[in-house]
Amino acid sequence: MSKETLSSYDVLNRFFDEGSFTETDAYLKSESGDAEAITGFGTVDGIPVFAFSQNVDACGGAMSKAQAKKITKLYNAALKVGAPIVGFYDSVGGRLEQKYELLSAYGDILRKAAKLSGVVPQIAVVLGNCVGTSALIAASADFIIMEKDAKLSVNTDGKKACSCCNTKNGTASFVCEGKEAAVDKAKALLAYFPTNNLEAAPAFESAPAYENPDKLPKVIADADSLLCVGAGYGDDVCTAFGRVDGNPVGFVVTQGGNITAEAAKKVAKHVRFCDAFSLPIITLVDAKDFESISDASTLVSAYADATAAKISVIKGTAVGAVYIALAGATSGADMVFALPEAIVSPIAPKAAAFILDPSIADAPFEEQDALIDSYIKTNLTAQKAAEDGYIDDIAEGGELREKIISALNMLSSKRVATLPKKHTTK
Question: Is the model more confident about 419 or about 131?
Answer without folding.
Answer: 131
